[in-house]
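User: I'll paste a sequence; please echo it back and then give the predicted structure.

Assistant: Echoing your sequence first, then the prediction.
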Amino acid sequence: MSDMDAIVTGQDASDATTTEVMVRLAGIAKTFHGKDGRAVAALAGIDLDIPRGGITAIVGPSGAGKSSLLRAVNLLERPDAGTVIVGGRDLTGLDEEALRRARQSIGMIFQHFNLLANRTVAGNVALSLELSGWPAAKIGPRVAELLDLVGLTDKATQYPAALSGGQKQRVGIARALAPNPQLLLCDEATSALDPETTRQILALIRQINRELGLTVLLITHEMAVVREVADQVVVLEAGRIIEQGPVAQVFAHPAHPTTRRFLLGETGTELPAALAARLSPAPIADGATLIRLHAVGALAASPLLSDLGAAGIGARLVAGRVQPLGEQPFAGLIAALTGDAGTIDTAIHQLRARGAEIEVLGHVATDAVTAG
């Protein structure tokens, strides 16, 4: 057992490999009323299972209902309708005292840290333990364990004003883990951080998830965060789930137009504007066919353009890149293909049969194509 395993008493890291449901949302609805009296449906009948031991990301545009959904899980916002079950227990049926106790099994970290300025780092971490009635003799050692876990042992006596944004978020993570939760909720936990600090915090969240078997539910508006850390992704739009599934599946085969739009910038497969303006739906004599290709795993790591060249097709990279998707490679490419139309069609069919997602974008004159 690792040192981190010992920090969460009685929680087996092997839980991460099970498919047991940690959170079940059934028929969750929430409506808000604006100053003008108009009703806005933040959540419109959400049904969702969150598997135990994994990291599930909720992504969507502003106003999609992401924060309302996250806050419904611990009933910081009570839904107007529906059932919230966490760890097999129906939270929506509890009175306030029972709900307060149940919330001790749900940790939460926030976008803007929410630390108390008049408490030290150690004092901020200790607060939830004090409120939970932990014996004073146990609080100090527990706080020390957690500060060691998040790499802040030397900051224990400092105040939040002396910390960087990343250090403040590490305090927030330690505080959220203090009462040994089963579930960690992350409310845009990295959106206030610079890219390098974001990567460090995401790596810490993934480490905690893997070594403790802790279930993580996070919301974000950045597909880069999803790609970096999540196992499952749920896409929200206008209070409804429009797509969900394993991250690799959703990245490689996005089914909904909103998901595809979210992925374009992250995968590097947004068609350059100058090229898009010259795109024709009909083939052009001696022109090029533009395709957008997404692939995951071994296919993404293969020499895709070279393979096309070996088949007698001219293949030129216009845009895109290969990047990590969890622990496997993910390719997002736009390529210009030249050659016999029948040969190009056959090659596209063969790549799709191997698991690639390919969209034929249209046709351009060859002199319009520039290297990506």
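The two ends are 48 Å apart (CA to CA). Residues 1-18 have pLDDT under 50 and may be disordered.
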